[in-house]
Amino acid sequence: MNTYLDLEKFPLDRPDSPAYANLVARCKSDMATHGMFNLDAFLRPEYAQAEAEALTPKMDSESFNHKRAHNVYFKKSIPGLSEDHPALKLFETSNNTLCNDQLAGSVVEKIYTWPPLQRFLAEVMDKPALYPMDDPLAAFNVMRYQEGQALNWHFDRSEFTVTVLLQAPDEGGLFEYRTDLRTADDPNYDGVARLLAGEDPQMQQMNVVPGTLNVFRGVNTPHRVTPVKGDRARMIAVLTYYETPGARFTQTEQLGFYGRTA
Ligand SMILES: O=C(O)CCC(=O)C(=O)O
Ligand SMILES: [Fe+2]
Questions:
Q1: Which of 103, 108, 154, 175 is the most exposed place for a label (fewest CB within 10 A)?
Q2: Cα–Cα distance between 9 and 16 in angstroms, integer?
Q3: Which residues are in the Fe2OG dioxygenase domain (predicted)?
Q4: Is the C-beta atom of 213 inside 6 A of ligand 1?
Q5: What residues pair up with 206 in beta bridges, in sequence order?
Q6: Does CATH number 2.130.10.120 belong to domain 18-258?
Q7: 124 ligand 1 Cβ < 6 A
Q8: Whose Cα sits closest to atom 10 in ligand 1?
Q9: Interval 96-154: pLDDT, tens
Q10: Nearest-ligand number for the alpha carbon of 143
């Protein structure tokens, strides 16, 4: 994996080293303060670019165009919220997705299934262990956003999400987020409505270099990707792990996100 990953800077393969302990401590601290952490250029940028190019023909011919209007919950209705509540405002999303069953042999698959990464993430996230999903579609994806495409405001299904940026666009395609807008006990619908109206001063933007591994707690932190501008697409790998083995999407979720069931 040292070919692809910068294991000198991020010694995930040396869990007994002091450098590893330092890295875990830094990531825990970033997670506690910002709800996310980054390993800059963890996937060496030349391999990130090569992976983006290698996957482009498949993206052109086989990907699912995830295009729909949705609210921040990806649900039709929320018990106790009237249909016209501004927290349920609909937004357009469009991007193209390749699923894990279309990514056999890819570098993204190698990273997703590499046990030291799972162990490292578990340690940073204070979990006894983390497991890959047992879902042929939702375990890991590569998403492409071309000119005008975007992923609109949403909360994630999983507690946290791991991404690796493969290719950055020339303009737009920015990741925007609002840390801890809700909690497990307080859905904060008025706060959600404020954010969606563009009136939350605590919204932030993140800009990362290609190859960066980002981990963010997206279950209570709404986030979006702004529309891409220009000819260069934004391409990103999304890796999902759970605390229990065997996690799967429901058929309804598979259909909604990937246009098919498997
Ligand atoms: O494209 C990204 O940076 C974010 C992807 C994301 O939020 C998701 O897949 O849930
Ligand atoms: Fe997300």
A1: 154
A2: 15
A3: 135-245
A4: no
A5: 175
A6: no
A7: no
A8: 156
A9: 999 999 999 999 999 999 999 999 999 999 999 999 999 999 999 999 999 999 999 99
A10: 1
